[in-house]
From TrEMBL:
Keywords: ATP-binding, Nucleotide-binding, Plant defense, Repeat. The keyword GTP-binding does not apply. InterPro entries: Apaf_helical, LRR_dom_sf, LRR_R13L4/SHOC2-like, NB-ARC, P-loop_NTPase, Rx_N, WH-like_DNA-bd_sf, WHD_DRP. Gene3D superfamilies: 1.20.5.4130, Helical domain of apoptotic protease-activating factors (1.10.8.430), P-loop containing nucleotide triphosphate hydrolases (3.40.50.300), Ribonuclease Inhibitor (3.80.10.10), Winged helix-like DNA-binding domain superfamily/Winged helix DNA-binding domain (1.10.10.10). This is Putative disease resistance protein RGA3. It comes from Vitis vinifera. The gene is RGA3_80. GO terms for biological process: defense response; response to other organism. Residues 109-132 are annotated as: Disordered. Residues 109-119 have a biased composition (Basic and acidic residues). One of its GO terms (molecular function) is ATP binding. It holds the Pfam family NB-ARC.
Amino acid sequence: MAVGEIFLSAAFQITLEKLASPMLCFRDAEARQITNAAVKLWLSDVEEVADDAEDVLDEVMTEAFRFKQQNPVGNFSSLSRDFHFEIGSKLEKINMRLDEIAKKGDELGLKERSGEKGHNARPPSSSLVDESSVFGREVEKEEILELLVSDEYGGSDVCVIPIVGMGGLGKTTLAQLVYNDEKVTKHFELKMWVCVSDDFDVRRATKSVLDSATGKNFDLMDLDILQSKLRDILKGKRYLLVLDDVWTEKKSDWDRLRLPLRAGATGSKIIVTTRSGRVSSVMGTMPPRHLEGLSDDDCWSLFKQIAFENGNADAHPELVRIGKEILKKCRGLPLAVKTIGGLLYLETEEYEWEMILKSDLWDFEEDENEILPALRLSYNHLPEHLKQCFVFCSVFPKDYNFEKETLVLLWIAEGFVLAKGRKHLEDLGSDYFDELLLRSFFQRSKINSSKFFVMHDLVHDLAQYLAGDLCFRLEEGKSQSISERARHAAVLHNTFKSGVTFEALGTTTNLRTVILLHGNERSETPKAIVLHDLLPSLRCLRVLDLSHIAVEEIPDMVGRLKHLRYLNLSSTRIKMLPPSVCTLYNLQSLILMNCNNLKGLPIDMKKLLNLRHLNLTGCWHLICMPPQIGELTCLRTLHRFFVAKEKGCGIGELKGMTELRATLIIDRLEDVSMVSEGREANLKEQTISS
């Protein structure tokens, strides 16, 4: 072993030993951070230095892999002296920071805590709670139904019915129950549902109503055009519109929004859900329906359905008493009841229930962020691997609808999904997701409950509080100053001038994530020159999502992002990928959906030995696959394979891809020259179309 290699090995060992010390106190700090700002800051320091150490280790492993690819007979010690010195210098700085963190931890009185008790295995068939089961809202539902189908409350202006109550009471659930009732469906010619949230904009809200009314996605237009179209569609129709989660208290906002809504027929109704009594007085034409907490009996019915297998509590009488005492602390809030029920699901140890009942967190009232004690408690009892997955989701804005499969791939790319036995990372990540769904950290979306998921706004508040500066969003009207602590950034690129937006991202060098969250509108998008200026400063990126932007080429320097695991270029105008993509040796997911102009893939794609997902769905102009793609034996999804007669591009390349799952579409089967070549592909266990 060379001197440089010995030095690096020793330096890494010192770093790992120093990291172990704060990690022993990590659970104590996790439990105290919600009520102690100094502890929360200490935790941020630990996470930051741990990320930096991980980046250095990743850099060494990547460089060693690259060197092995280019020099099969060489060894690690052959790496340059400059590289050894650079890594050693980084480790020395990390070790100094760890010494400071250890000293601060002692000053804060942080203590070592034992590992968390293992959780019961959950049967797959009952891992998800049926969210259509609602308790205790029958009276409120019937009252609102009566108002909706009655012509008594017409008049010259559209009737607005406010539903008012604190967060977590089930205002949205009640509105949905009414919205989906058969009587309502028969009574109204048109139904529309719009989630408004706190970032109110009249043009965007009008567009959302128009999109919901037509089922179409309208391009970016000015307010006058949008309102004219909406007025024409509503004219003479009896409609129901739900405006969910309204925060704006400005009468001028409401006056502008309702202009086209007056065009509807007599009997049209609007339901508004809000936490604010001021909102209801500004918008409502009817007395508000103030939602109260659930009764003790309804709370218990909801809780036992979630906490006990098949909702049967009879087998555990000793837990019933404790459970009912716990529910008194939930103050009738369905969200709190569901969260605690998910926490105690299949937990039969009386001690565990007593620990929840007697937790100090119940004694803290909601702070300015309105974080419910039940949510704090449930978060504290999450396994460590689920905590970082949950906090990461604060990078998305409130009411953002996400897909399970995409989020799991992001978690894997970030290193949050830990290998366990022979189980695939994707399956483990799916288990993580189901666990968070079970515990009510996620819930099914109103838009498409089978495909999309969303976080309740109070749950999002918790994730955002816990993330602190770790996650950052560039949004219209919000600060564009990004903290040096930020690791994950999302850009709502349909609301920004691209140059300003990307300059803000370039001010930090520690970002691991950059995601462009495309809306339903076309927008100004970053040019290649902007990306060319931006990418050099983002050397730590693991996730880069540039989907739905108008770029025609990706800068060659993308190949310098040596940590990159996830690259999404879907729905861009690219014709070719730069050859440097083939030096992204850590790349796991390459998503190229609907790249209609894409003509080919780089010839050296076979070097991406860690690639697990290559999505070519909708790449209709792709001519053939790169040669020897069969060497990518880790691939689990491919979606499309283009057969060609050139050497190394035939169907036989699929033979070694034994990990492929889901549907595989094979194009140009006419280029399979012989039956034996087709048999060689050995795809009998795959789902194939041609």
